[in-house]
Amino acid sequence: MSRAERWARGACLLALVACLPVLIGGQGSPGPGRPEGLADVEAVRTWSYADYTRVVVELSESASVEGVDGDRIVRLAANPDAGRPERLYLDVAELWVGRRFETGIEVGDGLLEGVRLGQNTLENTRLVIDLARYGRHRLLTLESPPRIVLDVYGEAATRDSVEKPGRLPAELRRVHTVVVDPGHGGKDPGAVGVDGLREKDVNLAIAKELAERLTARGFEVVLTRDHDETLGLEERTALAESSGGDVFISIHANASRRSRARGIEVYTLDANHERHSLDVAARENGVPAARLDALQRALASIRVGELGSQSARLAGLVHDQVIRGAQSRDDSVPDLGVKKGPFYVLFMSSMSSVLVETGFVTNRRDAKLLRSSKYRALIAEKIAVGVDRYRQQIELGVAAGPTLGAQE
C-alpha cells in the first residue's frame, strides 16, 4: 500500500466518526445533536520547510487545551497491518468540527502525511497528525484569533537542538545565523505617528541596514520579510524556526497617546512585566491588553531556563550599544532600559530573542530621527555590534567549556 493510500485510509477511518448520525450539521450549524456553546474550527493551515512543519488550527473562540509544550499530545506507533502511519493526536474540549474536515488535509512534505480532524465526542474534537518522519514536537496556544499551533520537527532538527553526550548545550553553541524580523508590513502598518510616519516602513529600513551589517561581520542572515508584505504571526515565526537560527532580532517602533513619550527600549520574553510592558506587548501582538491573560498562563509554563538567560545577555549588549549610538547623535534620547514582556513573536521563537523598540513614531523628535536614513543606519550598526559582542561572549564560553557559559 502506498503512502497516499495509507493516509487516505486513515482519513476515511476518522471520517466515520464525523459521519455518525448524531453529528448532523457542519461548521456553525447547531444540528439536532450539536450541544450549544461550543467553539468552531475556522481554518486549518500548514507551512512546510526542511525538517520542520507548522500546523495551525484557527478557532472561533478559545477552547480548552491544557498542558502547553506537548503534555496533552499522544504519540502512537505505526500499525502497518491496519495501514496506519505513526501519528500524534490531541483532544480539544468544547470544540465542534462536524463534517467540515472529514476528508482530511493532505500535506505530503516528507515529514507530515496529513492532518485530520473529527468529532471525537459531542463536545470534543480530535486533531490527528499522520507522520512520515518524526523527531519532536511543540504545542502552543494563542489568541486573536484563538488558535492551536503544533510544530513538528524532523530528525535533523532534533539532532541540532537536543543536547547529546559530548556535545555542548544550546546556550553555548557558536552564533552563526541571525533572523531579523521587521515588525508589521503590508496591510498592517503598525503604529502611525507624526506626519503619517508608519512603523512598518521604519522597521523594514532598519532591518535591511542591519542585515547588511551583520552579513559584513560574517553572519548568515535571514529576513522574515525584505519588502512591504503582509505576514501573519505563524508564517513569520515559522520562517524563523525553519532557518535554524541562533539569534532572533525583532525590529519595532514605539507609540504612545502621550506625544511627549520618547526613547529606546529593548525587550526579552517573560510572563512578569510592568503595566507599560503589557501595553506595548498588546499593541505589537495585535491583541487587546485584556486578552493577554491566556498568553500569560502559557508563558508561565515555558521553561525559559538557560535560553532566557542568554536572551537577557543579548538584550543587555544590544541595548548598551544602541543607546550609546542614539545618544551620540542626540544626547536627549531617553534610555528606557531593558524590560520583559509577553510578546508573541518572542514566545514562538526557540532561540535567543530580543525585541528592539527603536523610538516613538508619535513623538516629533523621535520621528525626525527615525525618518533620517543616517540615523537608521546608525541604529542598525549598533544592533549589529551588540550581536557581534554576544557572539564573542558565547564563543569564549564554547572555548572554555560550560563552566564559563554563564559568565559575562
What is the fold's blueprint, element by element?
Elements (H helix, E strand, L loop, with lengths): L2 H16 L20 E11 L2 E8 L14 E3 L10 E7 L1 E2 L8 E2 L5 E8 L4 E8 L4 E7 L4 E7 L1 H7 L15 E6 L16 H18 L3 E4 L9 H10 L4 E8 L9 E6 L5 H11 L7 H8 L4 H25 L5 E7 L2 H4 L4 E9 L3 H8 L1 H28 L8
Parallel strand pairs: 1-5, 11-12, 11-13, 13-16, 14-15
Antiparallel strand pairs: 1-2, 2-10, 3-4, 4-8, 6-7, 7-8, 9-10, 14-16
What does this 3D model show about the protein?
The chain has helices at residues 3-18, 155-161, 199-216, 233-242, 275-285, 293-300, 305-329, 344-347, 364-371, 373-400, and strands at residues 39-49, 52-59, 74-76, 87-93, 95-96, 105-106, 112-119, 124-131, 136-142, 147-153, 177-182, 220-223, 247-254, 264-269, 335-341, 352-360. The protein has 408 residues and is α/β, with parallel strands linked by helices. The protein folds into two domains: 3-159, Immunoglobulin-like; 163-404, Aminopeptidase. The protein has a six-stranded mixed beta sheet, sandwiched between helices. The chain has a five-stranded mixed beta sheet with strand order 5-1-2-10-9. Strands 3-4-8-7-6 form a five-stranded antiparallel beta sheet, covered by helices on one side. It is globular, with a radius of gyration of 23 Å. Helix content is 33%, strand content 25%. β9 and β10 form a beta hairpin. The protein starts with a helix and ends in an 8-residue tail after the last helix. α3 crosses α10 (373-400) and α7 (305-329) packs antiparallel against α10. The chain has ten helices and 16 strands.
